[in-house]
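Quick one - first record:
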Amino acid sequence: MMTDAEIEQENAAIAKAYKDLLKVSYRTLTDDDKKLIRKAFDVAVEAHSEQRRKSGEAYIFHPIAVARLVAKEIGLDATCIAAALLHDVVEDNPNYTIEDIENLFGKTVAVIVEGLTKISSMQKDMEDVSLQAENFRKMLLTLNDDVRVIIIKIADRLHNMQTMDSMRPDKQIKIASETLYIYAPLAHRIGLYNIKTELEDLGLKYTEPEVYFDILNKIKESKEEQDEYIREFNELIETSLDKEGLHYTIKGRPKSIFSIRRKMMKQGVSFDEVYDKFAVRIIYKSDTANEKFLAWKIYSIVTDHFRPNPIRLRDWISSPKSTGYEALHITVMGPKGRWVEVQIRSERMNEIAEKGYAAHYKYKQGDTKEDSLDTWVAKLQEALESNETNAVDFVEQFKLNLYSKEIFVFTPKGDLKSLPKDATPLDFAFNIHTEVGMRTRGAKVNGKLVPLSYKLNSGDQVDILTSDSSKPNANWLDYATTAKARGKIKSALKEDKKSIGEDGKEILRRKLKQLKIDLNEKSVNELVHFFKLKTSLDLFYRIGIGAIDNTMLKSYASSRSNALVSFFKNKITRRANVSKEELEKEEVTSKYDLLVFGAEEEKLDYKLSNCCNPIPGDQVFGFISVNEGIKVHKKNCPNAVSLQSNYAYRIIQAKWIDSSQQAYSAQLILSGIDNIGIVNDITKIISSNMHVNIKSISFKTNDGLFSGKLNVIVKNNSMLNKLVTNLKKINGIDKVSRV
């Protein structure tokens, strides 16, 4: 029990924390604002009066700390400060409902508190990764209610990370991993760079404590030397800046522990070899009209004194990042031959960089320009609403799009579009409009034709060539990187498969009729079992592309009419007793029966690893081991994370594919007598043969004789045979042979 003196002392500390909260607010609070915050504070104190945190302190210090972060670090308004104070009330105290909050504080606060309560209840069951991903997706759906929900949630997470010392180690690791996996990328995307940095550093502190403290101590050791270096750097340019009558401050800023660690890993270097461990920030006073002019003026002063690295100039003033970040970054050769990153920002830009979203609103009153965060939320909604992808894919895709650096490309008319780094012309096409994407035939970059897999660079001008007859094919998934493009291509391929399946169904009806069998549910089920397929659509599709031909159907018919029938019945009844899991395993195995590696999808020798025993159909990757060649691991194998982080260069893409749907290339040699129009006849035959593509074609004529070489892509052998038969029928063709 606490003594009266201790209780009094604690109450005084709570009152002081409350007063500080009002002082630190980044906005000027009106009397109404103060009343609202006071009321929220009183409700929170009462609701949490019985609660203590793991560390033993009164629970109310947590909501106050979160509200303080929301007010000071993020700069949100009184409504959000009140919501932050109340964020755990409904969840922790059964006497309060969302309705009560709405009656007391109005609709907006209630919507935010409800969003936060939803997220907390989801996190209770976040043990399993796929569950966690699904919950993360739901959590992002709360963006729909109000983006401030996510912002307060990030502040809540930051305070939890700052006060996690008294938790069990396993809890610490779980929370820290989730922070690195979800919250740091979110903070980054919303433009909360300071918070992102702190979340990453704290995440590292609990996931890899030795590494964290090692780097932290080294930073402390070299602090004096760094301060001295930055003082020397400043002295050299201050005179010139003062001469121009500029008002500015220069700050040195060490790089975050997390980013130093990332550099060490990425470049395989030690702490001492990381060359730009700190940045110099020049923050200048300016009115809006002269901002840009002054930034470049400071740039020219800095580069008069120090030689710039031309490859490392980043101009985010002319085209800000989509998070709203604006600054000019240059890396220069400073004193003692060391590279230093210099960041040039006005006070306004600096505030936006530190507070992100909130500062935007402060500067954008009366400005109707679409807010980049709103655009981002709209894009995110689109990705969330397309349920094509499963949750884990979605999270991975989402993280890719979050962390990826951006590039800026131009439309033919000169409009600027922002895309993630490594985007291709296909991503650009789908970014303009789904219809443009679907009808893409080719692309020109800076006036030159490029393949659809071409990686775009900032400043490229992209012109998409479309045609009504073009439609997505499976290769497009190798070329598209953005979530939107991939989602649309996948659903188009499904549609395509369906339409081929419809044709296939009619062909099957005809062929079965000749074998005196009716096409009905029973015969379809038997055929699906006979060919070890998964669904009737797979069956119709294979008939449609000719993968199941007459001979195969005949062998099915004879199996029906002879002794195999009894065997078949047994098999079907036996299967009924087999567990559902085994059945699915068998179906998947029979469907995805071929393992291919790399972007080229080559067949290579491999071994299945014992640690996770992958089976056909699993998501896998190849690992090039020293003694045993390629070992195949599941993507969620317990060793996957360490292999992928420590030996990224030895990882090779791998996937199981359905061998009957795999496209193969074959070369045909033709010879005969040269006729007028023979080339036309040949190409006509090929293009009228469904699902055959020409990869390359060359013809020669010599004294009335004709010879040609064709490289074609076909789905299977029977298609190729059909093509050869049809080519032989052409007038003048004497021989067609496969190489």
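second record:
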Amino acid sequence: MRTILIVAGLGVLVGAVFSSGLMEVARKGIFNPELFFFDEIIIIFLAVLITDILLLDFFNSIGIPTSTTVSVVFELLGAAVVISLLKLYETGEGLGGLKQFINVQKASEISFGILISVFVAFGVGAVVQFVSRLIFTFDYHRKLKYIGALYGGVSLSAITYFILLKGTNSITFLDQNIIESVLDNKLLIIGFSFVFWVAISQILIQVFRCHILKVIVVIGTFALALAFAGNDLVNFIGVSIAAWQSFILWQEAFLTSGVLPSEFLMDGLSGEVQTPVFLLVIAGAIMVVTLWFSSKAQYVIQTGVNLGRQGEGQERFKPNFLSRTVVRYSVFVGQTFSQVLSEPVQNKINSRFTYPEKAFGYKKGVAKPAFDLLRASVNLVLASILISLGTSYTLPLSTTYVTFMVAMGTSFGDRAWGRESAVYRVSGVFNVIGSWIATAAIAFTAAGVLSLIIWFGSYYAIAVLLVFALVSIIKSALKHSKRVKFERDHKKFNKTDIITINEITKESSENIVKVISGINNLLLDVVNNLGYHDLSRLKKSLKSQDELDVVIDELKDNVFYYIKSLEETNVEASKFYVLTLDYLQDMVQSLAHITRSSHTHVSNNHKNLLFNQIRDLKSVQRDLDEVYGHLVKAFQSQEFDSIQQLIADERKVLEKISNLLQKQIERIRDTENSPKNSKLYFGILLETKNLTKTSIALLELFREYYEEAKQEF
């Protein structure tokens, strides 16, 4: 990871320096600046900046990769359309005059080009990866000795052409003759670079014993980072620099002729305006720092990697109707197609996609990579080729979308989406694509609304919007930090570890401590909040309940991998682990009934529980708090000699609950006149009784297993 980040950082810095000629989209690509006055242009740029900051931060926070190209284009379009409509309204012109302000053709080309690139990138990625795996298989090391130089020549020559093409289109200080020579001799450059890289690859393999796929991945990472800097960095700072350059143009005019902002037309933006290199370097440095230290950036990376990983694991996205339908019909098409091929051919193809464990699992304690170096190299080379082709034919596309969809296509072609995971992966891809569409709609609407607010609110609106943006960013950072901490605290065990019997005891103890602590704290909150009849706090209790449910679901998802990772076949140990989780789940479900019924009671504005009822519930809760406190300490310290005493204490709690049930029955006969209160009170006592019984069963199970484990060792 460190090596990749260093290489990517260098690519970003180099790409930043070479990006000065790519600012046209922000200045004149979407609208015609010569028809806008300086004060109108500044409103457009300011609305775009505020929208872009909030929009991109939102998608980064939820871990969804989105396109800065799409966001900037549609923000510029939305803000420019609104300002144009306001200008038309003031002059009394009709809507037909809108087309003179907006470059509709350019915006349409960008949108259509991006849409087409999504499907092309996925399809090409799937086909190329399928063919590559047929040739190399997962045990590709032997094949690389013979055809690795040829593969390296093809890959590295494609990347070289990509770098040259991006460079000649970006570097403004290159002589025009050099640029024309490169563009006129594309095939010759590709041919010479292919021969050169084949020779270099052969030397690296035979003489220096280098892993050619690692070389391709490193160079490909540099090339793509350079492309992202030349595209995304421009989108990030293009609007800011265009606004700054607009101010400089007006300032010069004001100093010479005293022209006002509302009188100065921005035709100066229509020409070539060079961007100072120091601004590009600063922006590139900020991108590099973010790449290294931003947890949100890492969160976005995890989304793409997890969707494309080889094999099963924790799935982030839930299946939906669309993903289920697509997978169902895909399975049907696959089965139909397989009937066309003879059985020997099918067996031969399937054998090429069977990978040994050693291809992915290395050492104990070292996590398996999401995919191997062959797929990594295909991802980088294909993304480079497709972006190069789009650039050479001046087709608008998004580097984010192309790279992501190539990765999804190669994972599909590599059979990473099996029957166990396909519906989740397809759902994830649809979620990401849906977010791209949402990006365009939200960007257009939000930028338009903000420009309208600034138009009428002037400086006051600007001040309020800037404060709002700052507060939103801070709140988002705090919320994300809290989520990262929660995920770190609930980090799942490493599935590549070989688990011993002692480790099962330790793992189960940690699970018990985690769940029991959560149950104890939540039960205290619910009883107190119910006593105060506080709906807002009970809503927070519901959220805590959902977090407990997530913990249990994650533990259950890992049962298969946990049992499979045992160092020896041990049915009793596996059964113990499964039963432990079952008891913990039962306890969480009992608490869920208590939490949700309490929230429903208060939400429906039913009568408060009686003082005596609240007092009795708090008495039970205090007894359980004392027992669970000792239980947590025992399991944290791995000292289980007190289990028998804990069981005895819980039986006393059961006896108290039984007495309280009898007491409530008598209360109903004498004084109780609220059926809703009785229903809630009985429900809480009965579920607390179930919770206590289950925890006793859990302790008895653990005591038996612990005694057996002690005898073995």
